[in-house]
Amino acid sequence: MQDEFYIKRCIELAQKALGKTYPNPLVGSVIVHNGEIIGEGYHHKAGENHAEINAINSVKNKDLIPESTIYVSLEPCAHYGKTPPCALKIKELGFKKVVIGAMDSHDKVNGKGKKIIQDAGIEVISVILEKECIDLNKRFFTYHEKKRPFIILKWAESQDGFMDKDFKPTAISNILVNQFVHQLRADEHAILVGTQTAINDNPSLTVRNTEGINPVRILIDFDLKVPADFNIYNNEAKTLVFNSIKEGSEQNIHFIRIQKENFLQRLMDALYKEQIQSVIVEGGCFTLQQFIDANLWDEAMVIKNENLQLKNGTKAPEFGFNADKVENIRDNSISFYSNYL
After folding, report:
1. Most exposed residue of 69, 71, 113, 312, measured as fewest CB within 10 angstroms of its CB?
2. Residues whose CB is less than 8 angstroms from the CB of residue 126 and which lie 6 or more positions away in sequence, other chains included
3. Cβ atoms within 10 A of the Cβ of 238, count?
4. Peptide bond just before 284 cis, omega within 30 deg
């Protein structure tokens, strides 16, 4: 139970960096001496110190380290990247014990970090609160194990199941839900729309009602119908434009040629190559339905305005799944679905 308590704290710390560590995982670390936390830290963003190093650096009396246990939510890394391997630092400092939440399936780690520590004669306990630690890094694990991004479907619909009124842009969600949506954008790596949504709504797909990093924008526009002066082409975020006409980069805009045949698989392969770990699919209906029909999704969020009847317009996608939970926010409800466990 004590180990679980400290791994929970590791998870809490790691979550502080949600949306900021790509392509690295979220990791938290706690150092405990005689039942007292003497150091803690988390990985803030790629290229900076890993969680274990931040935790070690926060310890005031380093002489206590050889008699301390270091807890970490994910197996310490074993390879040289932008920073040296954490497993070697743990070995060098001679911790008494190491407790790992989940093992790292990334092929550069995958048991190697644990082995370095064990071979140094340090006791290692692994898979404590494993499910929670894997869930923390569901994007990272999906990307490395399935060779594709973690896919989140999201749309808003009226009580009678329409996404707009008379096929024109229509406000459906309330201000609090809008804030939730912008936080979602800040938390995830990328956001995707199709040609029709980009033309109809002229969205910026940026983070506005909260603080955070703008997601990478993904536009599916085979015939390049979206005008170049539309918001999605502004300089606020990196933008990937999948099309059948041209290839190449123009400042923050990257054109990627793709064939329509077997499109979704080609798209997943291309996004994997671009190191995109998670994607919010914002629609419209045609694009969302393609992902649903291919069972290519990991989570879904359906916002419903219970008091709004639109009567005519774009029908919401057909989605016959049972929600894991429903949250009510004033006159809106958000149904949450999972498809990755």
Report:
1. 312
2. 75, 99, 100, 103, 114
3. 17
4. yes
Residue whose structure tokens are 């005008």: 227
Residue 108: per-residue pLDDT: 67
Distance of CA 294 to the CA centre of its chain: 21
119 Cβ contact list (under 8 Å, min separation 6)? none
Query: Among candidates 90, 48, 45, 46, which has minimal Cα distance to 72?
Result: 90
Which whole number is the average pLDDT over 163-169? 93
Q: What are the start-end ranges of the E strands in 84-149?
A: 97-102, 123-125
CA dihedral sign of residues 268, 270, 273, 278: negative
Instruction: Round to whole Å and give the CA distance between 49 and 89.
Output: 12
Per residue in 261-310, pLDDT (tens digit) is: 999 999 999 999 999 999 999 978 999 999 999 999 999 999 999 999 99
Q: At residue 74, what are phi and psi to the nearest 5 degrees?
A: -135, 145
52 is catalytic: yes
Strand, coil or helix: what is 318? coil
- Share above pLDDT 90 across residues of the chain, in percent, rounded to a whole number: 91
Calculated CA dihedral for residues 36, 121, 48, 182, nearest 10 degrees: -60
Distance between CA atoms of residues 210 and 179, nearest Å: 7
Q: What is the pLDDT of residues 182-220, one digit of tens each?
A: 999 999 999 999 999 999 999 999 999 888 999 999 999
Going by C-alpha positions, the residue among 66, 67, 76 that lies closest to residue 41 is 76
Q: Is 179 helix (H, G, I), strand (E, B) or coil?
A: helix
Residue-wise pLDDT for 151-162, tens only, equals: 999 999 999 999
Q: Packing angle between helix 86-93 and helix 112-119, nearest 10 degrees?
A: 10
Residue 156, CA atoms < 13 Å, CB-side half-sphere: 21
Spot the catalytic one: 40, 52, 188, 299: 52
Question: Residue 231: exposed, middle, or buried by beta-carbon count in 10 A (0-12, 13-18, 19+)?
Answer: middle
pLDDT for the residue numbered 110: 76
Helix (H, G, I), strand (E, B) or coil at 56: helix
